[in-house]
Amino acid sequence: MENLDEKNMKALVSLLSDDDTEILEHVEKQILMLGGTLIPYLESEWENTFNPIVQKRIEDLIHTLQFSQLKIRLNTWKESENRDLLEGLWMVATYQYPDLEIEKLQTELDQLYYDVWVEIKMNDDFDFDKIKAFNNAFFNKLKFTANTKNFHSINNSMINLVLESRKGNPISLCVIYMMIAQKLKMPVFGVNLPNLFILTYKIESTQFYINAFNKGLIFTKEDISNYVSHLNLKDNDMFYEPCNNLDIIRRVLRNMMVSFDKTGNQERLEEVRLLLESLRDETDSGF
């Protein structure tokens, strides 16, 4: 079965219309064993059939194959040396939008970078003033804003949709803000606070914090200490220091689980839980 030619692949997929349960189970098993190479033939068969039962069988198989590919890609990303953030966010978005191309996201981010650069390139100030200029460009000119009306929407975890709508949750706004800022050589990093993802501007002599969900509000380490105390949590260095890209992707997946839980989609929730489990290690804080 591993060496099927195109003709035999098409023939195998066409058997999904068979009403014999035993034959159908055998065919589905063989398709899943062959993996993602069958997806084009499944898509072709879906387009050429008007039987809703067969279409549903094909849709389920395509999703299973794509999900399997996503798990492999995410695991490869986790084991990679650089763990590129945009690549990780793109992979997460392909869970809902499997045909999404990372090049499209990169082009959109490059344009946003240019739009911000135009606004602040003449500003030679540092630290607070530079962030204020960035905030003006990001929130006032580019119109990025908090999606408070649909805070738990799955769309807030899909970077392609956040780039399109300019609305997101704390972490999606933060990661876009951060990727643009870092491209501008600004020392802006993510911070994994409980219940709220924020940013920090950190150099050797200066550190302060930025809340991208609140139009780039600038605050201090003391403000974070008060926040943690209010939550009755034990103080932890991780609440003040930059987190890594793996932490960010894990947090995005947790947000997705909450979104699916809110809508009662337990099947999708369990799939995202499996993705999260594949990225867990001893460094996972659980936030």
Topology at a glance:
Elements: H1 6-14, H2 21-34, H3 39-48, H4 52-79, H5 85-93, H6 102-120, H7 127-141, E1 145-146, H8 159-165, E2 167-168, H9 170-183, E3 188-193, E4 196-202, E5 207-211, E6 217-219, H10 221-230, H11 245-262, H12 266-279
Helix pairs in contact: 3-4, 4-5, 4-12, 5-11, 6-7, 6-9, 11-12
Question: What is this entry, summarized?
Answer:
The chain is an alpha+beta fold.
Radius of gyration: 22 Å
Mean pLDDT: 91
The total tally of domains equals: 2
Strand order of the largest sheet: 3-4-5-6
Instruction: Return the structural class.
Output: alpha+beta
The parts where pLDDT drops under 50 for at least 5 residues are: none
Largest sheet entry: 4 strands, antiparallel
Cα(first) to Cα(last) distance is 44 Å
Order of helices and strands: HHHHHHHEHEHEEEEHHH
Number of helices: 12
Shape: elongated
Q: Strand percentage, roughly?
A: 5-15%
Helix content: 55-70%
Number of strands: 6
